[in-house]
Structures are given as structure tokens and as C-alpha cells.
Amino acid sequence: MSTDGHYDNIKDYYGKVLSSTKDLKTSACCAAEKPHPIIRQHLLQIPEAVLSRFYGCGNPVPLGIEGLSVLDLGCGTGRDCYLAAGLVGPKGAVIGVDMTEEQLKVARNSLQEFEQNIGYKPNMRFVQGFIEALDDIIPSSSIDVCISNCVINLSPDKEAVLRGVYNALKPGGEFYFSDVYADRRIPAHVQSQKVLQGECLAGALYVQDFLRLCHKIGFTEPRRLSTSTIDVTDPDLSDICGNIKFYSITYRLFKLPELESICEDYGQVATYLGTLQGHKHYYDLDDHHQFVTGKPMLVCGNTADMVGQSWLGKHFKVEGDRSVHFGVFECGTGKENDNGRAGPCC
Ligand SMILES: C[S@@+](CC[C@H](N)C(=O)[O-])C[C@H]1O[C@@H](n2cnc3c(N)ncnc32)[C@H](O)[C@@H]1O
User: Fold this and answer.
1) Which residue numbers delimit the Methyltransferase domain (predicted)?
2) Is residue 346 part of a domain?
């Protein structure tokens, strides 16, 4: 993607062209999935000025983050920061980063009303900056959970963003984010269309290229949590896009150095303790791992690390280590896995 005038176009789109969610021309920046009931309760505490300017495509704020440090990339007017602030509570911390002044102004001006609603001063700040230059803003290894909602597609340098996130995360930290993806590489004539740029479609990443990029950075096994289809209903924009299919996908990328490129079997067993907020009876790690509370589950080495060595660790009991190897972990789905390899996956 060419960067000539790119940032100015995006800043104009979010700072001047759009004044509320109603002004959007496609459904790309509209989260289709229904949030968890606990999230819906927290939404009631967020000022209307923030809620009416929500341009996210998913629900990337995990429950169970009390006391943690959260970073939101491209926070806009701050809906997800406000949600995270309620969930991390007075002992946690939230930082929102965005490049567009007008968006941050709404975010900052809504702080006082939010404080009154929740009854304490949240440890939350909004910083103006580029997500491609996180190292200038966030100390390395300082963040537990990085979130982002419909932003990375807008970046002309996605590799720099992912590198910065990797550096900002603590070991065991996680990048949990929703964004727009395409089923193919976006051709130049679509990339250069200004409305499609602003609406988060022109810069959508081809899923397989995104997975390759994750591997390169060190996010060795991306896990997909949810997927929904995006419809380009405007006839002119749809005509420009042709046969491209767009999706909103929520991925989980863990900073765990021992993750392997495919799932290996070490005979490890993980049991979910039922202690994550809002997940008393079961927990979905991703779209193909549901842990039922109290039920031991045979897992691959990567899943054992994700639930045992990450910020989720205190909510799982993991038995076994990697001292004995039993071969590739067979999950029997026979589907192509997230690494683009046919065959066993987990
Ligand atoms: C689609 S909006 C999403 C805003 C917010 N996450 C939400 O859910 O409402 C994209 C936001 O990303 C910001 N943004 C885009 N590219 C950026 C970049 N390279 N650095 C910092 N912010 C960026 C824009 O200013 C805009 O506020």
C-alpha cells in the first residue's frame, strides 16, 4: 500500500468525514457479533459521545483481565478502552493510542462522566501517536493484553505494528484483536479507493499473508476465535471490490517463545478451573478448543503453553511437560490448520 497522503486520508475520514457510526458506508466497521452479557452491562457506563462513534468490527475485550495492563491500538474515541478500564478495575491500567486528534478529544472529554458512572478514577490515558512506532510510546515487556478493533488493516506497515506489539507485550502476554481480512490479496485499484480505505476494506490483509507475517514476527501459532462475513452493500463499492470476500476475524496471538509451528503431542492435560469472569461453565480458547470446567483435556504442547504459561495460567491446571514426545498431535479434524498446512491440527 502506498503511504503518499495515506495517513492524512485516514485522519480526515475519522476526524472530519465521519461524525458518528451512522455515517459509515459499509458494514465493515460495525461489530456484528453480540457481546457477552457482562460486556453489555459495562457498556451502560460509557458516555454516549463515545458509544455513538464506535467504528470497531468485533469484540476484542477479553473478560478476566482484572488488575492487568491493557493497550488499545487505534482506540478512536475509546469505547474499548472504557470497557477495559471497567474490567481491569482500579488496580489495572489502560492506554489508548490513536493518531487522530478529533477522536482522542472525544475520548479525553468523556473521562469525567465515566468516572462519575463507575465511582472511581480509572488508571487510563489516551496518547496521540502512530501504531507503527509503538516502541517510542510503550516500554518493552510492559503490557499484559494488547487489544485493537478494526485498525491494523488501515496501517501501511503492518509488520512494524506487529513487531511493536510483540516488543510491548510481557512474556505470556497476548494480542487479542478483531480486524478485517480478505480471501485474496487486494488489487491496486481497490487499495487506492479512498472510501474503501477509510471503511477498512482497501487495506484488509489476505488471511494467509497475515499468518505468514505472524510467524515471521514470533507469534508462532495464531489462534482464530471468531469469524463473521462482511457485506459490501453499496452497489458502486461492491462493483469495485468484485469477487473479493471480506471477513471480520478475532485472532489471539500469544507471546510465548516455546510455541511450535505445528501442534506436537507431549501427552499433556489441561483442566479449566471455571474461574475466569463470565466463563463459569466453559471457556473457548479459540474456535476449536472449548474447555469444559473441571474436565481434563488432552492438549498439544502449544495449547498447554497458551493456557498454562500466559496471563490465563492461574485459571488452568496443566499436567505434564515436554520431556516425552509422542509425535504430531492428532486432533482428527482433517482440515487445513491455521498454519496453512493440511493434516492434523489442534
Ligand atoms: C475504524 S476506526 C476504529 C476505532 C476504534 N478502535 C473503535 O473501535 O471505535 C480506526 C481508528 O484507527 C486510527 N488509526 C488508523 N491508522 C492509525 C495509525 N497508523 N496509527 C494510529 N492510529 C491509527 C484512526 O485514527 C481511527 O481512530
Assistant:
1) 67-214
2) no
Q: Can you give the pLDDT at residue 4?
A: 63
Q: How many CA atoms lie within 13 A of 144 on its CB side?
A: 19
Taking the C-alpha atoms of residue 183 and residue 190, their distance in angstroms, rounded to an integer, is 14
Domain boundary among 254, 280, 305: 254
Residue 284 Cα to ligand 1 midpoint, Å, equals: 28
Provide the CB-side half-sphere exposure for 256 (13 A, CA).
26
Give me the pLDDT at residue 2, please.
Answer: 54
Top mutation candidate among 30, 59, 82, 154 for ligand 1, by most atoms within 8 Å of CB: 154
134, 135, 139, 144 alpha-carbon torsion, rounded to 10°:
50
Structural domains in the chain (count): 2
Q: Is the minimum distance from the CB of 74 to ligand 1 under 6 angstroms?
A: yes
Q: Pick out the chain residues at pLDDT < 50.
A: 332-346
Can you give the length of the chain in residues?
346
Structural domain contains residue 342: no
CA of 87 to the centre of ligand 1 (A): 22
Residues 331 and 134: their CA atoms lie apart, in Å, by: 38
pLDDT at 169: 98
- Residue of minimum CA distance from atom 11 in ligand 1: 74
- For residue 12, give every residue at least 6 positions away whose Cβ sits within 8 Å of its Cβ, in sequence order, or none: none
Whether residue 345 is contained in a domain is answered as no
Ligand 1 within 6 A of CB of 152: no
Are 135 and 88 members of one domain? yes
> Does 69 share its domain with 133?
yes
Instruction: Report the pLDDT value the prediction gives residue 335, as an integer from 0 to 100.
Output: 43
Instruction: Record the pTM.
Output: 0.94
